[in-house]
Amino acid sequence: MSKVSVIIPCYNQAHFLPETLNSILNQKYSDWECIIVNDGSPDNTEEIALEWISKDKRFKYLKKENGGLSSARNIGLREAKGNFIQFLDSDDVIDSKKFEIQIKALQGTSENALSISDYFSSLENDLLSPHPKRYMSPCFSTNFFLNELISNWEIKLSIPPHCFLFKSDLFKKNNIFFNETLPNHEDWECWMNIFALKPEVKYINLKLVTYRIQSGGMCSNKALMKIGYLRAIEIQKSKFVRNSIEYLLLANRYNKILFGLKYNNLKIAYEDTPLGRMEYLINRNEYTIEAKQQDENIRTMFKNSLEQLTTDLQIDLLEDWQRNDLLLEQQEYQLEQQEHQIASLKEELKQLYTSKSWRITKPLRFMLKLFKNIYKYAS
In the CATH scheme, what is the code of domain 4-235? Predict the structure, then answer.
């Protein structure tokens, strides 16, 4: 059998932790390990974790200083020994058949493969009651996963971490971890890194996960969520070639989040641009292979135009440099000639001042200056 490594980061959720761990213990698929990571929680997380370790040796316990959700998940990833990775937050639960169903779906797939199940959003204190507002489909509507993650995330698409079952090689062989500098949206940033690898995806149309929505959770702080999302987009933009489709989609998403509804007023016929048309088709599930090829052709044409423009600019700059260099030489020559003329005039003046005729005519020059002054005042 192939082992599943379950990673549960814990911080101040001790009152929900037994339900979470019980959902692991009840799995029909028995070959698993559950890594409980105490992220410096001040509550009685440790007491509960040690109790469950004594119940079943498949539970493992790690304790660390508080470093955040990403830090705790990353320690779990480094400790994981399984062939599959299951992330599970300490307040959520999974169906008893989740491992069994998703592992079966992943049989015969490549090492870069994952499975996504549907999920159920519940109220905080009642896992059987649906939350009235907090649900978005975890299912992609096209095969262009990366583009949908950029354009539709938290608009039409949302995939809680515990919906996934990953083949562990996705993380191990590609050195993928959660970004520990982000205050939130670390999951989206991680999914972007994974889907950039173009993994094989198996979708399970069953609600195998319960996502507990807490009223005072981090998601309720809209200002902090916005800051985290923008930072995550900036990180992802740095990983794509400038003016690639992914880069442009990320830039557009960034501006929409930053400016909100005002951004619509800044755009001029955005839907008529190639990027706008592509985003429109993605949202309508009509982004076909033909449409993608058209956009690839546009991108190639744009790239060629950009390269030609760069070449032209380099030629213009070289010509400007040559013209400026010639002009500088002319100015230096003129300046040198002027310096010679000034030196020559100084020499002539020196000779004049020291000449005999200058000394003899000095009284005459004095009388001439005096008469000029008398005439000036008299008139």
Answer: 3.90.550.10
